[in-house]
Input
Amino acid sequence: MARNSIRNDYLKQLSASGARQTESTPQEGRGTRGAPSFLGRLGGIGLLAGLLAIFSRAACAAWELNLQAPVTATAKHVYELHSLLLWIITVIFIGVFAVVTYSLIFHRKSKGHKASDFHDNTTLEIAWTVVPTLILVGLAFPATSALVKMRDTSQPDLTVKATGYQWKWGYEYLTGDAAGIKFMSVMSTPREQIENKAPKGEHYLLEVDRPLVVPVGKKVRVLTTATDVIHSWSVPAFAVKTDAVPGFLRDTWFRAEKEGTYRGQCSELCGKDHAFMPVVVEVVSEEKYAAWVADQKQKLAAAADDPNKTWTLDELVARGEAVYTANCAACHQANGQGLPPAFPALDGSKVAKGSKQGHIEMVLNGKPGTAMAAFGAQLSDTDIAAVVAYERNAWSNKLGEVIQPAEVKALRGK
Amino acid sequence: MQATHTAGHAGEHTHDEHGHHPSGWKRWVTTTNHKDIGSMYLWFSFVMFLVGGAMSLVIRAELFSPGLQYVSPDFYNQMVTLHALIMVFGAIMPAFVGFANWMLPMMIGAPDMAFGRLNNWSFWLLPPAAILLTASLFVPGGAAGTGWTLYPPLSVQMGIGMDMAIFAVHILGMSSIMGSINIVTTILNLRAPGMTLMKMPLFCWTWLVTGFLLIASMPILAGAVTMLLTDRHFGTTFFNAAGGGDPVLFQHIFWFFGHPEVYIIALPAFGVISHVIPAFSRKHLFGYASMVYAIAAIGLISFFVWAHHMYVTGLPLTGQLYFMYATILIAVPTGVKVFNWVTTMWRGSLTFETPMLFALGFLTLFTIGGLTGLVLAMTAVDIQLQDTYYVVAHFHYVMVAGALFSAYAGLYFWLPKWTGHMYNESLGKLHFWLSIIFFNIAFFPQHFLGLAGMPRRIPDYAQQFADFNVMSTVGAFGFGISQLLVLVVVFQSLKGGAKAENRPWDGAHGFEWTLPSPPPYHTFEDPPAFNPSEAHA
Output
């Protein structure tokens, strides 16, 4: 019953994306566009024909057999290269197994076939060493050219830094009008959907609160890094995947040719919620992008906290709860009970009921060798004051303490 | 004449043997006999296969539909890690060491392995390692949840389960190194007079090269996990940028071991297939010499391609190009082997008993796995497919269809020799057909999942991946359940059944087939004369 509704949503989603693809074809207007999709589809369908027959015709239309529709030149090269390879390996496979099948049919003992004992043939052996070598050398040319183009990150129009955290992405615009804009991008799929307590939405697990927004047709260079463990920033429609290694910068780039929302996922196992840190990129027109940048800058200015404000307990707890839900609840859980022993409870914990200073320092600096990350660089003084105050007053930890942002500031870097 | 001589000769020894070897459990704990140790390796490997298989079914059950069903993401990661470690180090490798123990001395006409006590110790190191690995599930924090690759810094975050995995890897490594030294020494020194290296059965050749690969690569893995251990507990920063280290360094060291490891698993499998296909084609193996060169070439090149597992870690362009070319190169000797097997069947006199069916299954599926490997070798395409289900499909075609199917081919091929009874051919065939059908239902759709972008090692996925995952789970359960048939077949053959002749397969060659079935406890105490008609080339 639940499965049916999921399937219906899913079919809707697919027919929507199908429509999007058909629209896009004339727009692309490139000579090469038709070829890869034809080659790839045909190859995929040919290989799968037997398996698909098991399932209903209606479902067939929905089953994705190939790489996602490419929206960058790089992704097109990869698509074409993959289609070429698929054809070559299919031909080789059919060739080799045609010979096997012939033997299996005509050279059986049950048909009275007598074994003829030949066991060497130098010409043949040289031939099947040299011919495959030549085929492989031939393949190396398109493979090299695709790779060289893929790795050229020079002269970008825009540079963005993507930082992997357990388990969310942080984006910071480094150049252009948007320089200085930075935000966290957290999966927005509600917990109830994951726990099967609510019907799953159209973009289940592939939706975030704040996507990365970039202008169409511009070369965007993405620097990746991480703060805790290795993550991998990946968007299949762009053929982009680069590890985010803590302590190092890597780079990749894309130039999206079509507006739209493109979705990927973290692609390096990064712990408990590895499945729950999607990458969402919104490609918009230049005008929309300019408007978005202006809007973000305005919001950034408005949201800046007055450093001299004195906060009341109620204000802190209200803000702290929001910070807690976004940053802490994945491990320590909304009810503060954690998932011991890896993720300890905060309700009644030694840290949360101990000294204020120790608690603030734990949040600022994390605990090396455990999954407790350092939030000093991710959260503002006000956010840290709020979340510490929340943790010290929520559940059974009713300490009644107020923590001012200035106290957090004083402990930074100590 | 030679056969009767050996049988009579060996018979005497079985008789007076009762006098001085312990019976009951002491026999198994203290044994230095290659046949006993071979059997223990095989049973151990089968038990581990069932444990690792049960874990894979936990994984597939969770992936049956989107959403979290049965296990927490943390536990899911632990299953992913242990499934791989147990299958690679507990099931596949010991299975082929078991075959080596049983068959190598009989194939080369040696009385036993070169170092009997070392052989015993190599085996008895395995159960403690297996206990460490499985028991780590029950310690605080659970087992390592990093995947079998144990990449830091994630592995530095783990609890004591990670340390248990590290020690298990140390112990398994020691066992492998000692086992390999034994195998290499046996092959190089104990061959019957007249059996030159180039007249040696192919299975011996594959193990000779594998032995060197193990001796060269296992210490590297031990080093990598030791550095991990000191990073975790003793304040070193090999893999921590904050102290001048580099997380990617671990990946280089790990894969410098990890890629030869792939061939450590594959080469003995090639060896088994090189015996089964000629036997049931009633022909000699085609291109014996080129097979040997191909094995050696694969072994050598396997040390120069490690970073093709790391195309997205930020290698420089020149590095990516080099590793792509080197990886493509490995397809040449692998292709030569496939062509040789195909030509061995050509104009043969084929029959299709269970070992041959599994060998043909191996040939088909391993070729598919090899060809998708060629796709993955192309860096640009691999960047799209790295860490997706395409890779999962690829290495299961190579590992399950490659190593496991070949192990089954070997099991059915040699079972009559070991037990003295023919196995139940209908059950064997049923086992094959169920295996190959369910295997493809389980793993073929994963190619499409990967192409569409489904990452690996996730307990929950977006809805467009739902249908193929249902198929894959159904296939995996079918495959898992069909494997229990092997137990039935083996027990039946141990208990009774038609008497196996010395040479139950009329196309089989080699010293091992001149011995009675089952062979006496001690064989070839005097080296047999090498008979060219039993040679493989």
Q: What stands out?
A: The CA atoms of residues 201 and 435 of chain B lie 29 Å apart. Chain B has one domain: 2-16+28-534. Chain B is about 70% helix and 0% strand. The radius of gyration of chain B is 23 Å.
